[in-house]
Amino acid sequence: MNYRHIYHAGNFADVLKHAVLARLVTYLKQKDKAFRVLDTHAGIGLYDLSGEEAQRTGEWRDGIGRLLADPVPPAVAPILAPYLEAIAALNPEGGMTHYPGSPKLTRLLMRPQDRLSAMELHPDDYETLHRLFDGDYQSRITELDGWLALGAHLPPKEKRGLVLVDPPFEEPGEYERLEKGLAKAYRRFPGGTFCLWYPLKQGAPVAEFHESLVALNIPKMLCCELTVKSDRGTTGLTGTGLIIVNPPFTLKGELDVLLPFLKDRLKQDRFASARAIWLRGEERDPPDDAD
Ligand code: SAM
User: Fold this and answer.
1) Domain ranges, ordered by start, for the chain
2) So where does S-adenosyl-L-methionine get bound (predicted)?
3) Which of 34, 146, 176, 287 has the most CB atoms within 10 Å of its CB?
4) Mean pLDDT calculated for residue range 251-275
5) Backbone phi, psi, residue 119, to 5°
6) pLDDT value at position 125?
7) What is the overall mean pLDDT for the chain?
8) Band of the pLDDT at 290, cuts 50, 70, 90?
9) Is the CB–ligand 1 distance for residue 7 below 6 Å?
10) Which CATH superfamily includes the segment(s) 5-290?
């Protein structure tokens, strides 16, 4: 396990993932009934962007740094509000030093009746995360393989909630693992909302991944993707994708406003693009190879 999220925290992929996560949690709060968020690959929860590791890559500068460099237009501001308000709460002096990872962002948005279960397998990162949530009775932090949690921890006893699956993609076969993990988790918790992260990079088997997801016959499945630069001449991350199962009914419309804005604000060359499509749902979009 070589992956450490501190080198990537606040990058363009985090911006899209965390903006959507904040919307999903906000939507769950529309009903009084308690919910649980299961975060299977949680990271350390809070990132110091002024620290040596984050400074070494500087990835956050092309992500949250650029997002906050100029005011957000009025049409987009309400969509980003829960995400940006959580960041502002962590940086009361202004500036951008403390960046929330997925468990911290979730926790900042939760109400007293809501619960968080977060898994982290890297021993050092688990220790850091555990310390961050020490004494917090609403959060349970476990040093456990997140893929196992998709079986053992579902359905949650609250019977409402969100599952975030955000693996590091450092081993081959992660797209397949994600698809198999979703199949298992959905069988156990068909009423839940699921948010899965995947990378876009040269040679990534994204079309096959989408096809395998469609074959699961899950009725409501939304996909959103943001590409910030061409993948020619690089094997690194050039874009980011999310699959959202059982999305709130407002999410597609929000993504249709948010994605063009993020594409313009975060683009690194003229090959930037963004899209939100139904992989399965009432308004099924054409398959990948039709456009
Ligand atoms: N979800 C976090 C966020 O948005 O702030 C970032 C998570 S990072 C992409 C992936 C994390 O998964 C790393 O911290 C890594 O140590 C951890 N990890 C890797 N394999 C794991 C596994 N099998 N189970 C749980 N955590 C794992």
Assistant:
1) 5-290
2) 18, 41, 102, 120, 145-146, 166
3) 146
4) 98
5) -115, 140
6) 97
7) 95
8) very low
9) no
10) Vaccinia Virus protein VP39 (3.40.50.150)
